[in-house]
Amino acid sequence: MSAQLQLVSAPQPSAPPAISEPVIEVDQLSLYFGRKAALDQLSLNIPRGGIHAIVGANGAGKSSLFRVLLGFQSPSSGRARILGRDCQSIEAQDRARIGFVNEEHSLPAWLRVAEVVAMQRRLYPRWNAARYSEIVDHFNVLAEQRVRELSRGERAGLNLAMAMAQSPELLILDEPTLGLDVVAKRAFLESLLAAVAESDSTIIYCSHQMEEIERLADNLIVLERGRLIHMSPPDEFCRRVSLWVADFGLQSPPLSHLSGLLQVQTLDGLHHCLLLDAPDDFGQQLEALGARRHYRGEVSLDRAVNALLTRHHAAPR
Ligand SMILES: Nc1ncnc2c1ncn2[C@@H]1O[C@H](COP(=O)(O)OP(=O)(O)OP(=O)(O)O)[C@@H](O)[C@H]1O
Signal sequence: where (predicted)? Predict the structure, then answer.
């Protein structure tokens, strides 16, 4: 589909000036496992400041990218830099500037919370005790509790509190709310937003939960099969995707040739078309195909991203 070729936006003119210096610089990065490309010639710059959401279908390469960025995995080819340092030569002092929280929330199960925190404090010179207490209190985690006694949501809160207390320049969150119930999820997001508001950390947030992205993200980065296919503020992306509902009566004209078409569904006898960058005369095109009436509707971020990611699978009817 030709739309794919136009998806990657140039550096965003709407980005605030404070976020011009990249925290992540990825150039032609590939990571192969046998014949499988987890990352495929990926090029991506993430500017300093703000919350950057990385989304993509399962297997798009999000976790692989984080592993390379954090120096846990060597790429097959290409270059990646984090906070100005080549990812293959990250040292302890670089790690002290980077926080990482993933869905596992793994911590030494046998230790008490106070012991884990004491260990962390020693490692991070910019430790912010007030910020730690603020977040951890939100989750009602007690210092004397052992890690194994904490619920999944409480462990997520403890991890977030420790990560934010490190005052990292860059915080990477890889599906941090996976498996949390709605209450814990809300507590996690509220704590994150409050902590971000009073810090100057750049956040990279990976999630399949589009309502979280909608609430948090200043910048939306979409990966597909190890490649960048879109980067822009989320509302800008939503404005580019439009929904057209057309009534063709009993007919079902072929629509797959329409420029920018991402998805077509038939609901209650009406054709619902999602388009990227619909041409100005799209209504006339529908009329030319026999539409008796049509109207244009709004699209949520969730629906727009889903249409983009499933555009190859959702065969237009
Ligand atoms: N150690 C490995 N060995 C072989 N293949 C791997 C390995 N790690 C990742 N892959 C493959 O690389 C691709 C990218 O995986 P990755 O975990 O980075 O995706 P993801 O976007 O994080 O997915 P998800 O949303 O499901 O967590 C997948 O196709 C996966 O099968």
Answer: none
